[in-house]
TrEMBL record:
<dbReference type="GO" id="GO:0008270">
    <property type="term" value="F:zinc ion binding"/>
</dbReference>
<comment type="similarity">
    <text>Belongs to the cytidine and deoxycytidylate deaminase family.</text>
</comment>
<dbReference type="InterPro" id="IPR002125">
    <property type="entry name" value="CMP_dCMP_dom"/>
</dbReference>
<keyword id="KW-0479">Metal-binding</keyword>
<keyword id="KW-0378">Hydrolase</keyword>
<dbReference type="Pfam" id="PF00383">
    <property type="entry name" value="dCMP_cyt_deam_1"/>
</dbReference>
<dbReference type="InterPro" id="IPR016192">
    <property type="entry name" value="APOBEC/CMP_deaminase_Zn-bd"/>
</dbReference>
<keyword id="KW-0862">Zinc</keyword>
<dbReference type="InterPro" id="IPR016193">
    <property type="entry name" value="Cytidine_deaminase-like"/>
</dbReference>
<protein>
    <submittedName>
        <fullName>Cytidine deaminase</fullName>
    </submittedName>
</protein>
<dbReference type="GO" id="GO:0072527">
    <property type="term" value="P:pyrimidine-containing compound metabolic process"/>
</dbReference>
<dbReference type="InterPro" id="IPR050202">
    <property type="entry name" value="Cyt/Deoxycyt_deaminase"/>
</dbReference>
<dbReference type="GO" id="GO:0042802">
    <property type="term" value="F:identical protein binding"/>
</dbReference>
<feature type="domain" description="CMP/dCMP-type deaminase">
    <location>
        <begin position="25"/>
        <end position="102"/>
    </location>
</feature>
<dbReference type="GO" id="GO:0004126">
    <property type="term" value="F:cytidine deaminase activity"/>
</dbReference>
<dbReference type="GO" id="GO:0055086">
    <property type="term" value="P:nucleobase-containing small molecule metabolic process"/>
</dbReference>
<dbReference type="GO" id="GO:0005829">
    <property type="term" value="C:cytosol"/>
</dbReference>
Length: 133
């Protein structure tokens, strides 16, 4: 799937909603699985660390459908001036993708319209360490 199509799918789920000082749905993510299915989600910003990133929501939808392998993933955010940005996954999201299926280290992460990187390149030193003894 072309990056622009995946970006458009993630943009389509953006729906910012403010509750007090918290903002829900201002980041959207869409992923395509190795089977060719699309899953999307939005971020939920809540207090005390109980919220989650848009990638987590998209991955949860994928796992609910009994899929585990991510072919390509993107997250997007629109700033106050209306400019759309592609966001790289945070460290927690990178590790989450790896733990869902180790083969996801080969997933493409969209970093821009014409730029991607493999998850393994964004998550260095991801292998389990050798024993010291």
């Amino acid at each position: 799937m072309p990056n622009d199509d995946l970006i458009a799918a993630a943009q389509a789920v953006l729906n910012p909603h403010r509750v007090g000082d918290r903002l829900f749905g201002d980041v959207g993510s869409t992923l395509i699985t190795d089977a060719g299915n699309l899953y999307s989600g939005v971020c939920i910003d809540t207090g005390s660390g109980t919220g989650f990133c848009a990638e987590h929501a998209a991955i949860a939808a994928m796992v609910t459908a009994r899929e585990y392998r991510i072919a390509k993933v993107v997250a997007v955010w629109r700033n106050d001036e209306g400019v759309l940005h592609v966001l790289p996954p945070c460290g927690r999201c990178r590790e989450f993708m790896r733990q869902i299926d180790p083969a996801n280290l080969d997933s493409e992460v969209v970093l821009g319209r014409r730029r991607t990187a493999r998850l393994r390149d964004l998550l260095p030193a991801n292998e389990w360490p050798d024993p010291l003894d």
